[in-house]
Amino acid sequence: MNAAAKDLPRLSRRQFITTASLTAGGALVVGCSPAQVLSIGADTPVGPFGPFIRIDPDSTVTVVSKHVELGQGSHAGLAAMVAEELGADWSCVRVEQAPANAKLYANVGMGVQGTGGSSAISNSWNQLRTAGAAARAMFVEAAAKRWNVPASEITVANCVVVHPSGKQARFGELVADAAKVAPPAHPTLKNPKDFTLIGTDRVRRKDAGLKSTGTARYTQDVHLPDQLTAMVAHSPQFGAKLKGFDASAAKSTPGVVDVFEIPSGVAVVANNTWAAKKGREALKVEWDNSKAETRSSAAIMAVYHDLAAGRAEPQKGFKWSAFETKGSTAPAGGKVVETAFDFPFLAHASMEPMNCVAQVGKGPPKLTFGSQIPTVDQMNTAMIVGALPGSVQIETLYAGGSFGRRANFKSDYVSECVHIAKHVGGGRPVKLVWTREDDMTGGYYRPMAHHTVRVELGPDGLPRSWRQRIVTQSLMKGSPMGGGPDKDPSAIEGVKGSPYLDATPNVDAQVVLYDTAVPVLWWRSVGATHTAFVMEHTIDQLARAAGQDPIAYRRALYRKAQSDDHLAALNLAVEKAGPTPTPGWTRGVAVHESFGSVVAQIAEVKLENGVPRVGRVVTAINCGTAVSPDQIAAQMEGGTCFGLSAALYGQITMTNGVVDQKNFDTYRVLRMNEAPTVETYIVPSTEKPTGVGEPGTPVIAPAVANALLAITGKPTSKLPFVQPT
Questions:
Q1: Does this chain's domain 45-212 share its CATH topology with 219-291+354-433?
Q2: Deepest of 382, 400, 519, 651, by most Cβ within 10 A of its Cβ?
């Protein structure tokens, strides 16, 4: 037995198979959910107020967040939901990251503990409100017994329990008695009209001070006793395998401790980051490229074009799949508009590259880093070291962005770190560091995509028939969620169920997936990153062909499709934008639904030396109850700039299978002086909250393209807008 794993609970082959099956949604253990089974081995204490709330004698209320803070600011909204129902003083509320335990902290939409899909607020809405209301009821019952008064006469506000007789007590004074009260199974929730915190600008980030002073703890800040630092040499071509390496020069580099092979490459372990980097540079590595992707990105896109045009057949095992079909799209003699669009690979390019600290041996394995899906990271770690997934401890820190990159089925960089720590053994901490260049060239990416659209207009100028073909790479390949070569909902989201297709009587929409060795992954707003552009820029071209105003054209389609949410967002954006644009600027509009929210944007654009310049952007979002209006505005601002950055400049290209972009000098991003002014308006609603982290990203690109169409009369057929010279 490897010394690094001698103290770990062993997992049999049968246990591995059972656990792996459960992650795919199986039900092999009667009466147990996958989350419960994956939590076997976890030891997480739960206090009297449940897993989400802790109240101290000084009346401090700690909200335990099951969602990681990646910069999105969801901790504030999560805490506000508890504080509102509990009756806590917002100034006395703090947030703490939950440990890894899917049984207690599963995302109710995912079934495992994880943050993603713009779901932090929406999946916690009932759960955290109920937790807060139950704790409030416990304090009320404790006070009623102490004061010998009816519980119905007691109120709670600002951490104070009050009776009309004048009796009152702070939480801290009652906490011991309240802890003895059995929490009600179905506590009464507040009527939204009685909210005093939710929906107000008082709901502000709790981590702003830590981050502005540099005291927030990220993975790169972790310095444990006897800690080592590691870097990995990866193949420059995806799909290549290690053939051999000469480590003599690397091992002679001052500070290098060891050099060895791991499944993804060659690890260099050293006393510090610089030594690990220099040691890796001294390595001589030979790769087997027999199964590697050696084509250029342009060559792959050419295949996409051939597939869409019917000049090529799908790969073996793949096929065209219809996802919207009704009526007949045979020509009927109306005006025809044909469009085609190309979208490149995109890097996530979060400010903090991938990193992780792992300790294996001398007790349960432990990970310290910004884990986005702890359950998956536990699962992959357990498979490497031979332990129960629940026994893998994860201390989740702040993460410097993700946009989807830190959440993948293989836990790629985490698994690397665990393999290295297992080899080192003895429980000695190992920090894996990816450089910016590692991060930019090592995957994962938003997949390339190609769309063709053919629309025939009816006598009223609205679409009579709509034919669409989509070619892209699947995000679901190898996922525990399944999904064959014709099944990947992310490839068609934003087209399937579109109000434009609902309003069109004849539709033929199909998708074909294409496989390459290039690793792809969800990227902020996932499929909407390309589908929103296709649908919204096509609609403006249709309106132009019909001789109609683009806004009026959309309104007619939304009314025909009975899409009130789209209409409400569009109308609010139009109202707030005002009747005329800023002098010298031209407006473009786009509306798109993703993650349950509808976002409408009106962008003011002008051309400066042939390059689009975006000034004012008016945004309206229909997202249900606005828990934190300030944070929603921040997400719309950030999402807009993120989407605009990609639309203007973003693309990952390959030459002979090697990524061309290495850092921000070649993968250009939006500069501060290029950022537009973003105004955010929220459609009033009392419905359950929907997503806000991603829906602001996909709308800006088509809004800009539609403004450029108005300026030049020429449609945009590929992104980015600014092509390299």
A1: yes
A2: 382
Tokens of 243: 């053939």
pLDDT grade for 20, boundaries at 50, 70 and 90: very low
Residue 361's pLDDT band (boundaries 50, 70, 90)?
Answer: very high
Q: Which two tokens stand for residue 69?
A: 């803070």
C-alpha distances out from residue 497 to 364, 462, 535, 592, 593, Å: 47, 18, 12, 11, 10
The encoded tokens of residue 483 equal 């999904």
Residues 6+ apart with CB under 8 A from 124: 66, 67, 78, 81, 108
Among 131, 119, 103, residue whose Cα is nearest residue 43 = 103
Phi, psi angle pair for 104, to nearest 5°: -90, -35
Topology annotation, domain 219-291+354-433: Aldehyde Oxidoreductase; domain 4 (3.30.365)
Residue 196, classified by CB atoms within 10 Å of its CB into exposed (0-12), middle (13-18) or buried (19+), is middle
The per-residue pLDDT for range 633-666, each reduced to its tens digit, is 999 999 999 999 999 999 999 999 999 999 999 9
Q: What is the biggest distance separating any 2 CA atoms in the chain, rounded to whole angstroms?
A: 84
Angle, CA 326 vertex, CA 503 and CA 330 arms, to 5°: 100
For 615, counting Cβ atoms within 10 Å of its Cβ (0-12 exposed, 13-18 middle, 19+ buried), the class is middle
Overall CATH class of domain 45-212:
alpha beta
Which amino acid, 107?
N
Residue 707 φ/ψ, nearest 5 degrees: -65, -40
Domain 299-345+444-712 CATH assignment equals 3.30.450.20: no
Give the number of other CB atoms < 10 A from CB of residue 150: 9
Among residues 462, 392, 299, the alpha carbon closest in space to that of 39 is found at 392
Residue with tokens 């806590």: 88
With CA atoms as reference, report the closest residue to 669 among 654, 655, 651, 653: 651
Give residue-wise pLDDT tens across range 313-324.
999 999 999 999
pLDDT of 29: 43
Distances (CA, A) of 377 to 51, 172, 406: 21, 37, 10
Residue 515 CA to its chain's centroid (Å): 23
Calculate the alpha carbon distances from 493 to 214, 525, 528 in Å. 39, 10, 6
Q: Where are the domains of the chain?
A: 45-212, 219-291+354-433, 299-345+444-712
pLDDT at position 2? 36
Sheet holding 155-157, edge to edge: 155-157, 160-162, 168-170
Handedness of CA 535, 538, 540, 543 (dihedral sign): negative
What is the distance between the alpha carbons of residues 133 and 63, in angstroms, rounded to a whole number?
Answer: 13
| Position 19, amino acid | T
Torsion of CA 667, 670, 672, 676, to 10 degrees: 180
* Among 390, 313, 357, residue whose Cα is nearest residue 22: 390
E strand spans, 284-344: 284-288, 321-326, 336-343
Radius of gyration of the chain (CA): 27
The amino acid sitting at 439 is: D
The pLDDT of residue 481 is: 62
